[in-house]
User: Fold this.
Amino acid sequence: EQVLIRLTAAEQEILDSVAHLERCTPSAFVRAVVTAELRRRAEDRHVKVDIKNRREYADVRGGPITTLDARTGRDAKSGNSPA
Assistant:
């Protein structure tokens, strides 16, 4: 999956500097930071329960799990608000 992040000019300047100091591209740096955080969060009991619940729900529905659109709080595929 690809993820688009919007940064301010100041944030982009910092990202470029940090990536340069880490001797990598800005996208490689962002990927490293995000994946490290996701690995850390994978051990959180709330995250584990949520993943289990979402998988069970997807099994009952017989389809993939949809995510919420961060801007609207609506289902990203159907446009429906969460129940």
Observations:
- Helices lie at 9-21, 26-41, 45-61.
- The mean pLDDT is 86.
- The chain is about 55% helix and 0% strand.
